């Protein structure tokens, strides 16, 4: 079945034989995703594993994620950290209850998960229960998800990308630049004052592993790739 969505032609495959033809015999040509106009903000589509076409660099980034972020060993190693963060959350809730203060459970859970992830990646808490940063980061995550999920007429009529009639890309540029600034500050703080590759192995966290990989001359891994991977991992886990 063929659907004409604006200027974009969409083919719906409902036959097992045609699905096999598309996914097995022509997967290289048909495996890429259409790039939404919102994703083009800050050139995110050029560094994100989600939007890159199937290529050597895409395979390399996928391998990095599999080995450095989501291995069973790393998840098992963070069990004690997860328990520690849950205990901190319970102590915060108990303290507020004892003082007769109202607790925002959604915000408290968000900060707990955010700090669990940030400790796994960066070895420190990125927010605390009494700061406004967690709310700012939450607003950034929600803003990105809303703009990406919003129907955008520029995706169906590409000529309208020049004027961005709904302002989707403009808003995404704001969110993207702010999150990039946060990660850039974290990376700069980690790399500042480190004069040797051996010294950067001290924390044994995800960021150290990615920085070491980026310093290896024989890889195509860059600091832009690091930011894109961290952003994707954090927003995905926070959304879940």
TrEMBL record:
Report which superkingdom the organism of origin falls in: Eukaryota
Instruction: Give any GO molecular function from the UniProt entry.
Output: monooxygenase activity
Q: Which Pfam families match?
A: p450
InterPro entries (UniProt xref): Cyt_P450, Cyt_P450_sf
Family affiliation: Belongs to the cytochrome P450 family.
**What is the protein name given in its UniProt record?**
Cytochrome P450 76AD1-like protein
